[in-house]
Amino acid sequence: AEAAVSEASRRSAEAGELQARLGDVEARARSQEEELGRMRVECGNLALERERLGGEVERERQAAKDANLQLERIRKECADMIGFVDVARKERADQSKKCEVLTAKTTDLARRNAELA
Hints:
- Helix content is about 100%, strand content about 0%.
- The protein is an all-alpha fold.
- It is rod-shaped.
């Protein structure tokens, strides 16, 4: 009977140890579930941030496209203006030559008038 009591006492102590270990395991499991919950929240927040940043990137891309289009329009306007300036320079050179010819004719006529007078 004493051996049975001793065996029962030993098994009771063993059961207590197992119960304590089970409590530790359950506590770790709850802690890990809480951590998992925090990670899920963080993943959700990161997904929202990625979505927000994706929108910002798309807006920046569109702004860059718009700026490039505007730059291309300005380049075309500059090219047009350079063309107009080139035409104006040519016209001015032509007018300058005509003036030289008229000045020469006027000088010649003045000389002839002086000779006739």
